[in-house]
Amino acid sequence: MRTGTRNSGFTLMEVLLAVTILAMIFGIVFGTFFYTITNAEEQQERAVIYHKANFLLNDITQNTASAYVPFGGRLGSETSAETGETVETEETEQSIFMGTPSENEDTPVDSLELFTTNSRFSARMLAGEIAHVTYGPAEQDVEDLPYAVDENNPYALQCTVAPLLTETEDGGGVFQWTMNVHSLRFEYFDGTEWLPEWVYEDETALPAAVKVTLEIADSNGELFPFSTIARIPVNSVLEEPETAFEELEDEEQEEQEEDILEDQEEEEINPPADEGAEGDQGSSTLETQE
Q: Which residues cross the membrane (predicted)?
C-alpha cells in the first residue's frame, strides 16, 4: 500500500498575512513612540515660552510697581537758594517716567523707562537701591546680538539697568539682558482711560497702572499671548518731612485762632453771669442807701 508524504511549511497566503500583521504592530508601536517624542518636544518648547513670559512680565511688573519719583520730581533742575525758584540745568538723557509707542510700525516693541526702588536686580546692588530701568528694542542689529536668531520672534527686547548708588571697579554698574519677542505693548491708565503714551514731565505724575501685552511665537509660528497689569501705589511726588510738619503746624495754629475767635464771639453775645450778679448787687446797695 502506497502512502503519500506531505511537505511541512507555510503557504504564500499565510506568509503575507503574518507580514501584514507584523507591519501593523510595528506601525502602531513606532507611531506612538514618535508621537510621544514630538509631543514631549512641543511641551518642552511651550514650557520655555511660558518661562520666558513669566520672567519678563514679573520683571516689568515688579519694577513698574516700585516706580519712584527721585529728586522731588526735579530731575535735570535745581532750586535757586536766592530766589527759591526751580532753574533748569543740563539736559539729561534719563527721564523720570516715559512710555512711548514704537516709532516704526514694522517693529511692534514699545519703549518704557522709569526710576524704581526694586532691589532684585543684582546681588551687588544695595538694598533699596534706586535704579533707572529701560525697556525697548535693541539698538544693535539682531545678527550682532550674542544669542540665536529666532525667525518667528524677530524682535530683540533689551533691558538696561543703571543703578544710581552702586558702582563697580570700572566705575560702571550698568548691566543688560536681551530676549527675542514677537511683540511687546504698553498702555498707561490715568484713572479714566488707557493711553498709548505717558511722559512724566507732561503729566507731572506717574500713571495709576501699566498694562503689559506680550506675544511669543513657537517654532511653528503659533502665537502665545500674555498680559498683566502693574499697579503703581504711589504715583505722585512724596512731600519732604519738614514741609509736611510745617503744614501740620500751620493747620493747628489756624484751628487755635478759630477757637479763640469763637470764644470771643460767645462772650460778646452771652456775657458771664458774674457780671450780671455784680450789677444786681450794686443796684440793691444804692436802694438801701436811699
A: 12-35
- 155 assigned to some structural domain: yes
Cell numbers given for 26: 510595528
- Which residues, including other chains, have CB under 8 Å from residue 207's CB and lie 6 or more apart? 97, 99, 188, 189, 190, 195, 198, 232, 235
The pLDDT of 252-260, averaged and rounded, is: 74
Q: Return the C-alpha cell found at 287.
A: 436802694
Asked if the structure places residue 133 within a domain, the reply is yes
Q: What is the 3-state secondary structure (H, E, C) of the chain?
A: CCCCCCCCCCCHHHHHHHHHHHHHHHHHHHHHHHHHHHHHHHHHHHHHHHHHHHHHHHHHHHHHHCECCHHHHCCCEEECCCCCCEEECCCCCCCCEEEECCCCCCCCECEEEEEECCCCCCCCCCCCCCEEEEEEECCCCHHHCCCCCCCCCCEEEEEEEEECCCCCCCCCCCEEEEEEECEEEEEEECCCCEECCEEHHHHCCCCCEEEEEEEEECCCCCEEEEEEEEECCCCCCCCCHHHHHHHHHHHHHHHHHHHHHHHHHHHHHCCCHHHHHHHHHHHHHHHHHC
Bridge partners (DSSP) of residue 183 are 215
Domain count for the chain: 1
**What local confidence, expressed as pLDDT, does residue 61 receive?**
92
CA distance 252 to 275: 33
Domain-embedded: residue 40: no
Structural domain range at position 212: 45-70+92-231
Question: What is the chain's mean pLDDT, rounded?
Answer: 75
Residue 51 placed within a domain: yes
The span from the CA of 45 to the CA of 39, in Å, is 10
pLDDT at 4: 54
pLDDT at 81: 44
Q: What are the backbone angles phi and psi of residue 128, rounded to the nearest 5°?
A: 75, 20
Q: What does the pLDDT read at residue 127?
A: 56
